[in-house]
Amino acid sequence: VMEEDCDGLCWKYIIEEEGIKPDFVISTEPTNLGIYRGHRGRMEMRVTFHGISCHGSAPERGDNAIYKASRAALEIEKLNERLKDDDFLGKGTVTISEFKSESPSLCAVSDYAHLHLDRRLTWGETKGFAVAEVEEIVKNLDGKVEVLHYEEEAWTGLTYGMEKYYPTWKIPEEHEIVQTGLKTFKNLFYKEPNIDKWTFSTNGVTINGFYGIPTIGFGPGNEVLAHAPNEKVAIDHLVAATAFYAGFAYAMGK
């Protein structure tokens, strides 16, 4: 049992260590009672730069790692504007979420810096593709690009991990799991559901992205309130979602 530090790590354990692989999955992440059938993938990269330190009174004697990282950061900002789009999932994005540097003292040229990248992957974008884009930017800056690995100890003492690459996934609207969800919703609520996708990431990246298990989302609460100070869930959403889960299981079992 971990926090949300690593999307779908729990499912990796369930499938690979416990040998449990369900026929289908409903993710109960908030969908505002819509039926969601995918979202962009994501990955975390670290871009590392090394320089040569010297006394700050004569910076020309050194090679400042911060300047290298800063030049790369400006190019990564430009990269975000030209990333691929998808009619359903939306555009791929990249942003710098952390910039750290080191130097022997505050009177010395920095000899180390790194950028932490949050890369969101749309349909057709792969891990190798995303890494190559950044490597092209930093090749003349002596930068090193790596996809990070997550491995932490749980409260039980178990240490478990995986690479911090989470594939893009989407289920065709005509797929049985989506159509069953559609019929269940209409039978319960006498109206058409909103069929859409999440903006954020869920365990679906592992459930469907890695293991190909048919997955949809249907959950109480509104995605835009997730992790916000005013996050809340309406009671009637909880009641409606409970009815949907029961109705869906009944329909799939017929």
Question: How is this structure best summarized?
Answer:
By secondary structure, the protein is of the alpha+beta class. The chain has six helices and 13 strands.
Strand fraction: 15-25%
Structural class: alpha+beta
Reading the helices and strands in chain order gives: HEEEEHEEHEEEEEHEHEH
CATH domain class name of the largest domain? Alpha Beta
Any low-confidence stretches, pLDDT <50, length ≥5? none
Shape: elongated
The whole-number mean of residue pLDDT values reads 96
| Helical fraction | 25-40%
Question: At the third CATH level, what is the topology name of the largest domain?
Answer: Aminopeptidase
Total count of domains = 2
Radius of gyration: 22 Å
Characterize the largest beta sheet: strand count, sense, and whether it forms a barrel.
Answer: 5 strands, antiparallel
Name the CATH superfamily classification of the largest domain.
Answer: Zn peptidases
Describe what this molecule looks like in 3D:
The chain folds into two domains: 9-39 and 168-253, Zn peptidases (Aminopeptidase, 3-Layer(aba) Sandwich); 42-153, Alpha-Beta Plaits, CATH 3.30.70. Helix content is 29%, strand content 24%. The chain has helices at residues 9-16, 65-81, 127-138, 176-189, 204-207, 235-253, and strands at residues 25-27, 35-36, 38-39, 41-50, 93-102, 112-121, 143-147, 149-153, 159-163, 165-166, 169-170, 195-196, 215-217. The strands form five sheets. Strands 4, 5, 6, 7 and 10 form a five-stranded antiparallel sheet that branches. It is elongated and about 75 Å long. The model has no long low-confidence stretch (mean pLDDT 96).
